[in-house]
Amino acid sequence: MPSTAISAQGTIVQIATGTGGAKTITAVTVGYPAMVTSAAHGLANGDVVTIASVAGTMATPINVAGWVVQFKTTNTFAINLDTTGLTYTSGGTATPATYTAIANVKTVSDVQSGSASEIDVTNLASTAKEYRLGLVDNGSISMGIHLSFADAGQAALQARLLDGVAVNMKVILPSGTTPTASFSALVKKFSKSAAVDGVVEGTADIRINGAITWA
Questions:
Q1: pLDDT greater than 80 at residue 106
Q2: What is the CATH number of the domain that holds 193?
Q3: Given 98, 128, 151, which residue is the final one in a domain?
Q4: Is-contact 34 28, C-beta < 8 A?
Q5: Poorest-confidence range of 33-47, 93-107, 110-124?
Q6: Do 88 and 166 have their domain in common?
Q7: 3-state secondary structure at position 152
């Protein structure tokens, strides 16, 4: 049987470094997921947008930051929001984060390797230990990097290490039905090492801060 393995070559890791121009919203569907209409929006699956100025009863849940673009078409995209029972009246903008690729990445490991906690719900009537699953901890990813002081992506990693601010990141695999992992991250470590007859190596440890969305 021929192998269906996906080549790792072409994998891209990106870090958010700014915001793009606001996209005009003209409609939001009622239901799940909510489909947002924005003509020729130019967004990609996995992009993260801040939605603002939507009017109607769905205004409170939708007018926030952090929506991940999914199932995009030329003029629409989906967000992970259930708008059942709510109404869209008018208006709205979607402002995307802009990303910079991190250069010289050699390895990316443990994307979505987290697990749920176990909650012990055993009681005196139990005949064996009983559990429920708690929140999922998506853990951390590690990146091996050839260091470059000229690279803007690596500079952004270093800046987030120093200020401790959460930042949106993406890991984009070369192929697949949902090849882009989007998540909020905290940069815990960005170490450097050097050896004879080699190049300066870097290792970045990235803590996943919340959920990972594959799009």
A1: yes
A2: 2.40.30
A3: 98
A4: yes
A5: 110-124
A6: no
A7: helix
Residue with tokens 């260091």: 147
pLDDT at 144 over 90: yes
211 CB-near residues (< 8 Å, 6+ apart) = 136, 138, 183
DSSP readout, 72-130? --SSEEEES---TT----B--EEEEEEEEEPTTEEEEE-TT--EEEEEE---TT-SS--
Q: What is the pLDDT of residues 184-200, one digit of tens each?
A: 999 999 999 999 999 99
Q: Is residue 41 part of a domain?
A: yes
- Split at pLDDT 50, 70, 90, the class of 113 is low
Positions of E strands within the chain: 12-19, 23-24, 27-28, 34-37, 48-52, 67-68, 76-79, 93-101, 105-109, 115-120, 131-137, 140-146, 167-172, 180-193, 201-214
- Total-model pTM: 0.87
Q: Shortest CA distance to 203 belongs to which of 85, 109, 74? A: 109
